[in-house]
Amino acid sequence: GRFAGFPSAGYAVLAIEIHGLEPSRENIGAVHWTEPDSSILFFREVQDGVLNDIHELGKENPYHYIHRRSLLAVMRAMDYLHARKDIDKDRIALFGGSQGGGLSLIAAAIDKRARAVIATVPGFCDQTAWLYGRCGGADRLKGGDREQIIEAMSYYDAALAAQLIDVPVYIGVGFIDATCHPTKVYAAFNNLAGPRTIENFINIAHGSPPGWRERSIEWLDKQFMMGR
Asked: CA-to-CA distance for 118 and 163, rounded, in angstroms?
């Protein structure tokens, strides 16, 4: 699974699915099923229906944007962890990739209970890059008011939020990533206010190389001074 290795390393994992779907069904459209059951058909229908163009929903208003709900979900997850007696509140980290990586950065800027962040090929970085001659972001303008979208997306830009993050951050960036472009990820990394480390995935697109999870755990151990 996505978090294999963390429990055996001594970390409790709370995985949230921000859209209310099972994590195992995230990429249901990319899976070929010979005999899809009713559950699989449901998730496929949702992906092609209500969750189609999910990142565009409400994009003209920061209070109506779909990922306001996502960030609230992260903060409610933090509330839950802080309500448990078996969790060390001083060693809570946010971990995510792509959409989850960008949201982890934004959430850490808002919720100071996060003590470290690991973001793999994070999204939501440098949302208006195209305004300054950098790649990415221009497609966000399709089907909406230009100025309203630019203003609303500034509330959900991980590169802008990064300047509010003063806890340690570990970022992985794919150098041939056409989804979360490396220039955008570096815009976030360069704005981080606290200790920061970045690993360049030279020949990797939108993903991570073998051993990335193990290195992430090692990095987290160092931040939290976890002895093995």
From this structure: 16
